[in-house]
Amino acid sequence: MCDVCGQEVASITESDLYLRFILGEVRMEELTTSRERHIRCHPELAQFIVSSDFEPVHCQGVFAKEHLDAAFVAEQQARVTRAWRRLQDVAKKPIPLHEYPLPE
Ligand SMILES: [Zn+2]
């Protein structure tokens, strides 16, 4: 269940937890113990996913990307979009969990 909207997180392709795992921000053992959340329900992170397959998420407030440094935003967009693409990809393949995270 999503911690924000209360709806089921039906697939890892829409899981904020797995996206952050691929980014190296969540450890493997935390996947089973952390609260789940939709990617779209975490706009501070989702705003950095830039793909024609992903409807853009607008983040309000001080963490909105229009208030952030342009170089930082470009870097985050490249990193988070790559992680999101990897998440869509690994969900379709029999890849072991420990190989999900990006190399860095
Ligand atoms: Zn949600």
What does this molecule look like?
This protein is mainly α. The protein has one domain. It is built from four helices and no strands. It has helices spanning 16-22, 30-33, 43-46, 70-90. The longest helix has 21 residues, at 70-90. The site of zinc ion has 6 residues, from loops. The site of zinc ion (ZN) has 6 residues, from loops.
| Integer average pLDDT | 95
Small molecules in complex: zinc ion
Helix residue percentage: 25-40%
| Main beta sheet strand tally, sense and closure | none
- Number of self-contained structural domains: 1
What's the alpha carbon Rg, rounded to whole Å? 13 Å
According to DSSP, the number of beta strands is 0
Outline, from the CA principal axes? globular
Break the fold down into its secondary structure elements and pairings:
Elements: H1 16-22, H2 30-33, H3 43-46, H4 70-90
Helix pairs in contact: 1-4
Descriptive keywords:
single chain; 104 residues; mainly alpha; 35% helix; globular; binds zinc ion
Q: In short, what is this structure?
A:
By secondary structure, the chain is mainly alpha-helical.
